[in-house]
């Protein structure tokens, strides 16, 4: 599939068939995801991949699936054959930027202008969403609302204390779904989105 087609076909799908995804397809997808950029080549990104039905149901509970189902009419998190949970480690970046080739002239870690650990996991998620489309599959992204749900998910999946799960990505074969009502807002004009030389 041409890259431009992958980008244009990508959308958040909120209903999946029960058709399984072969293990080699998941391997191909994550081979690409692991090529995402990371500051200082820290590689602070990690993923948990879940296929067990009972575990998917527990994860969906932490994502408040029942509230999504009221709008989209399907339990699309737990029904997806695969769930991917992207995680990032802030401490990995601090450790990396205290190494000899990254410290400043005073021997200190840089002052972080933005939290690059979130930038990097965002890049990983985008590659994942595009790699899924390239395989003829579909995906969505859902958040984990509230500190209690986040802590519960970490405990359920044995995610290390220094890693933060940033969401849950259901992956599967698309079924007919209800598009997000937010799409009615329309896409911003290019004049609003793109600024040359200065704003």
From TrEMBL:
Species of origin: Dictyobacter halimunensis
A Pfam family assignment: Nitroreductase
Domain Nitroreductase: 7-173
Name of this protein: NADH dehydrogenase
InterPro entries to which the protein is assigned, alphabetical: Nitroreductase, Nitroreductase-like, Nitroreductase/BluB
UniProt keyword Amino-acid biosynthesis present: no
Alphabetical keyword list: Flavoprotein, FMN, Oxidoreductase
């Amino acid at each position: 599939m041409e890259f431009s087609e992958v980008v244009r076909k990508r959308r958040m799908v909120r209903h999946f068939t029960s058709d399984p995804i072969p293990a080699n397809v998941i391997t191909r997808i994550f081979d690409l995801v692991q090529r995402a950029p990371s500051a200082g080549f820290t590689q602070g990104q990690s993923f948990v991949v879940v296929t067990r039905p009972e575990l998917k149901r527990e994860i969906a509970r932490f994502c408040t699936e029942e509230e999504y189902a009221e709008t989209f009419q399907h339990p699309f998190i737990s029904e997806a054959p695969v769930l991917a949970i992207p995680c990032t480690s802030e401490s990995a970046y601090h450790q990396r930027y205290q190494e000899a080739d990254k410290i400043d002239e005073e021997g200190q870690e840089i002052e972080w202008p933005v939290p690059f650990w979130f930038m990097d996991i965002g890049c990983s998620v985008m590659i994942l969403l595009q790699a899924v489309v390239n395989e003829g599959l579909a995906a969505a992204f859902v958040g984990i609302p509230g500190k209690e749900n986040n802590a519960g998910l970490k405990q359920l999946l044995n995610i290390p204390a220094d890693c933060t799960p940033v969401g849950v990505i259901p992956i599967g074969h698309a079924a007919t779904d209800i598009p997000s009502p937010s799409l009615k807002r329309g896409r911003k004009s290019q004049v609003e989105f793109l600024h040359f030389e200065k704003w």
